[in-house]
Amino acid sequence: MSVPREKGVALSVLVVLLLAVLYEGIKVGKARLLHQALTSLSISTSQQLIEETDQNSSSSDSPQVSRTRLRWFLCHFSQSLLHVAQVVIGYFMMLAVMSYNTWIFFGVVLGSGVGYYLAYPLLSMT
Predict the structure, then answer these.
(1) Mind telling me which residue stretches traverse the membrane in this protein (predicted)?
(2) Which residues contact 98 (CB under 8 A, 6 or more apart)?
(3) pLDDT tens profile 40-57
(4) Which H or E run includes 93?
């Protein structure tokens, strides 16, 4: 049983539209995660962490600095995973647009607009 051509195109446009919305959501997620990380680390603790990293000290760390390093590592790791997901989705959308199908192109543009409209108000909610 084959899917009629119109339904296949409509399904493709819907998938690409949802990918574009997800792309915008990931951009906002990365920005929120960065803001959260910067506000959770105090300036003095961040400065202490930078100085110890520069000195390459091998002495035992205090529990506060160890927790700060772990929190920084987890935040950085999360941002890295989100970045990889964003790049992969971006390349999928680029490949879809390069099919030179007008409807797919409109799906990407509309999805980006809808994603921006839905996701960016979440940035101000802290």
Answers:
(1) 6-26, 72-97, 103-123
(2) none
(3) 765 545 565 566 565 655
(4) helix 63-97
